[in-house]
Amino acid sequence: RYMILVVRKAVFRREIEVRVSATSAIVHLILSEQKVGKMDSDSVSEISSQASCSQQAE
User: Fold this and answer.
1) Three-state DSSP state, 40
2) Rg of the chain's alpha carbons, rounded to an integer?
């Protein structure tokens, strides 16, 4: 959360290079969150699939 505050503050700086870097950091954070979310949902579906297969085997 601290990183978000720092990046947010950098977005409103006067220097264009700092604003561009802050914007890039925000995009990278969003993309990494999406990857983590996708990995979590994939692992949940895999676990539920394994559970249903093991129930059918009994």
Assistant:
1) helix
2) 20
**Torsional sign, CA 22, 23, 25, 29:** positive
Task: Return d(Cα 36, Cα 56) in angstroms, integer.
Answer: 30
pLDDT, tens digit, 9 for 90 and up, residues 24-40: 999 998 898 888 877 76
pTM, rounded to two decimals: 0.57
Pair 7, 28: CB distance under 8 Å = no
Cβ pair 18, 10 in contact under 8 A: yes
How many separate helices (H) and strands (E) can be counted in the chain? Answer: 2, 0
